[in-house]
């Protein structure tokens, strides 16, 4: 595990144009957690989320000046972090990685209901948000994979709605303004239009039962009975929502790939954004990744490098400023890879198309390869010594 003082920095040839803001960090440990829905097979296809757990915590409040510095940028690059031990711990977990935004689960993803938030946690969360300089609009809580608001079974839909509403109420308790969720599935028992109408009805009810949280619908992969793989699905849901100020969209680049939208190049991103049926005015967040397959470490480097042009285009699009852009690239138990990804994407957002910028991109490519080689060598050494570690061949996609 790296620490703020031992983290690797980009080559000196990389030009940084952003201001630097001092932020905090405690050491943390990453664990992979497969969190799947058991409600419906179609919804259960959602991949596992790898989260980061804080270790070595003390009873003292974390002090921002002891943490990693964060680069100030209008493109809010972040990660999905663990809230183990209390939602307030997610804040320093994000700061450890130099993240300018973060996602988290507000309660257990394996249960329909969880104990209420403790007053102490609520107070600490708000205090740390202020101390670490995170805005509520830079936090994108992720909903439970159990939720399926489009299920035609009335009892199952009621359980989903109650779980959904509880999350929105937690957002309001914490002063958060966004809530990201998967729309759901027909489960093969109703039509697409009927399922979309059920989803919209649940949103309208939830909006009336809460005050201000924006419900952020995530686009989905194009498989089976899932709602949301086509941008038209999202547009149809939003069209039925009564209070348009309470609904938004989160674009997941992996789901876009799977649904047939090629954003692997700058040209592909331009074409996709032009045909975004909902309208980018509803965009409230993004998940950056390339595919949710198991890869070995060499493939991680290849895939990441292949998507750099698309990520670079996204991180130069002014329409995507000041929203959470959450990294969901392949991951393993080393904070170095996530820290490097945050640094790399922040660097991409500062670049133009000069010779100096092109040289900087080359330096970034070298850095990515170097990080993967180091982690790969460490994994191999651990395997030979018999230590328990994640193997190269069993690397899982991170964060979600």
From TrEMBL:
State the Gene Ontology terms under molecular function: DNA binding; DNA-(apurinic or apyrimidinic site) endonuclease activity; phosphoric diester hydrolase activity; zinc ion binding
| Gene Ontology biological process terms from the UniProt entry | base-excision repair
Q: Where is the Xylose isomerase-like TIM barrel domain?
A: 91-347
What keywords sit in the KW lines? DNA damage, DNA repair, Hydrolase, Metal-binding, Zinc
Which cofactors, if any, are listed as required? Zn(2+)
Q: Which InterPro entries match?
A: AP_endonuc_2, AP_endonuc_F2_Zn_BS, Xyl_isomerase-like_sf, Xyl_isomerase-like_TIM-brl
Q: Which PROSITE patterns match?
A: AP_NUCLEASE_F2_1, AP_NUCLEASE_F2_2, AP_NUCLEASE_F2_4
On the tree of life, the source organism's domain of life is Eukaryota
**Which Gene Ontology cellular-component terms appear in the entry?**
mitochondrion; nucleus
Region of interest called Disordered, as start-end residue ranges on this chain: 45-65
* HAMAP family, alphabetized: Nfo (MF_00152)
Supply the NCBIfam families for this chain. nfo, PRK01060.1-4
User: Which family does this protein fall into?
Assistant: Belongs to the AP endonuclease 2 family.
Name used for this protein in its record: Apurinic-apyrimidinic endonuclease 1
């Amino acid at each position: 595990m790296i620490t703020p003082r031992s983290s690797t920095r980009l080559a000196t040839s990389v030009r940084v144009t952003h201001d630097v803001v001092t932020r905090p960090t405690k050491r943390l440990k990453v664990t992979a957690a497969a969190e799947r829905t058991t409600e419906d097979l179609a919804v259960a296809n959602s991949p596992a989320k790898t989260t980061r757990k804080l270790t070595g915590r003390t009873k003292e409040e974390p002090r921002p000046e002891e943490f990693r510095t964060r680069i100030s940028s209008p493109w809010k690059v972040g990660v999905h972090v663990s809230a183990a031990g209390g939602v307030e711990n997610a804040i320093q977990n994000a700061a450890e990685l130099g993240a300018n935004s973060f996602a988290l689960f507000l309660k257990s993803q394996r249960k329909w209901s969880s104990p209420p938030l403790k007053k102490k946690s609520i107070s600490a969360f708000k205090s740390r948000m202020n101390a670490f300089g995170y805005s509520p609009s830079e936090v994108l809580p992720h909903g439970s994979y159990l939720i399926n608001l489009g299920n035609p079974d009335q009892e199952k839909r009621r359980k989903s709605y109650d779980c959904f509403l509880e999350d929105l109420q937690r957002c309001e308790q914490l002063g958060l303004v966004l809530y990201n969720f998967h729309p759901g599935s027909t489960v093969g028992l109703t039509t697409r239009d009927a399922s979309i109408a059920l989803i919209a009805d649940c949103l309208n009810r939830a909006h009336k039962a809460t005050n201000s949280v924006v419900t952020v619908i995530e686009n989905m992969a194009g498989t089976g009975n899932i709602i949301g793989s086509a941008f038209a699905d999202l547009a149809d849901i939003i069209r039925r929502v009564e209070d348009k100020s309470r609904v938004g969209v989160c674009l997941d680049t992996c789901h876009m790939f799977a649904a047939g939208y090629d954003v692997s190049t700058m040209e592909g991103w331009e074409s996709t954004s032009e045909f975004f049926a909902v309208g980018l005015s509803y965009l409230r967040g993004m998940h950056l990744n390339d595919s949710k397959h198991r890869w070995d470490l060499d493939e991680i480097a290849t895939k990441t490098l292949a998507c750099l042009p698309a990520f670079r285009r996204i991180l130069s699009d002014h329409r995507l400023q000041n929203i959470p852009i959450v990294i969901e690239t392949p991951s393993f138990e080393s904070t170095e890879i996530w820290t490097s990804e945050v640094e790399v994407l922040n660097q991409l957002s500062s670049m133009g198309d000069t010779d100096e910028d092109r040289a900087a991109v080359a330096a970034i490519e070298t850095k990515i390869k170097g990080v993967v080689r180091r982690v790969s060598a460490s994994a191999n050494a651990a395997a030979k010594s018999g230590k328990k570690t994640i193997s190269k061949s069993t690397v899982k996609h991170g964060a979600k």
